[in-house]
Amino acid sequence: MSEKDEKKFKVTWQGWVSLFILILMFSGIFGNVDGPLKALDLNNLIGSFGVIGGDGVNFMGANGSGARDGFLFGLSIIPTTALSVGLIDVVDHLGGLKAAEKLFTPILRPLLGIPGIAGLAFVSSFTSSDVGAVMTKQLVEDGSMTDDERTIFVAYQYQASAVVLNVISTQAPLLPIVVFPIGAIILFLWVCKVVGANIVRIYINSKKRKEVA
User: Fold this and answer.
1) Which residues span the membrane (predicted)?
2) Domain boundaries, the chain
3) In degrees to the nearest 10, what's the CA dihedral of 107, 112, 113, 119?
4) Which DSSP category does 161 fall into?
């Protein structure tokens, strides 16, 4: 590699720091803490919509259906998407995505067959399927991920999407009757996600070999 290329791909300390902060924000570690550290959680920064009247419902209302309800749902995820994309652009400017590529390539390449630059999307997909989807789309548009790699990664994200958030929140009513601890449930679902993605990976690779032959 030439001196110019080495300088281009060199990761600075700003890149590592920005990557570390963004991983903390996407991981949900500080979601339930008190004090200033709450600002290091993406969901806390996104906040929530206020409620209307005494019914405790937001602008989406309740018992909606059809295209109108879908439109309001799409409208409700705009703050999440806008904030996430903004944070990612800032981190990219500081060299955080290059740091992510260097850090996650030894993990994601053998595990899922995808580039390390998808590391942030990999981390964010544990708590937010929307953010993971937006980041994956951006990586493909930037040419950092091929169509086959996207297919494998989508297969990983689609199964048990936002696994940590959904197990803790949407499945909370079932947790008291579950005999396994939450950590074991999340680990089991994550293993299923990895296995499912690798089944798709094997299929894509076998299809490629047949086309070459």
Assistant:
1) 12-33, 70-91, 103-126, 174-200
2) 9-47+66-212
3) -50
4) S
Residue 159 carries which side chain, given as an amino acid letter?
Q
Kind and range of the H or E element at 64?
none
SS3 11: coil
CA distance linking residue 26 with residue 8, whole number of Å: 27
In terms of phi and psi (left: phi > 0; alpha: psi -120 to 50; beta: otherwise), the region of 47 is left
AA letter at 41: D
Which residue has tokens 């999407």? 161
Q: What is the pLDDT along the chain (213 residues), one digit of tens a residue?
A: 444 444 445 788 888 998 888 888 877 788 778 888 888 887 788 887 777 776 777 777 777 788 888 888 778 778 877 887 788 888 888 888 888 888 898 999 999 999 988 988 898 888 778 788 888 988 899 888 999 999 999 999 988 888 877 777 666 667 667 777 777 888 899 999 999 999 999 999 999 888 886
pTM: 0.71
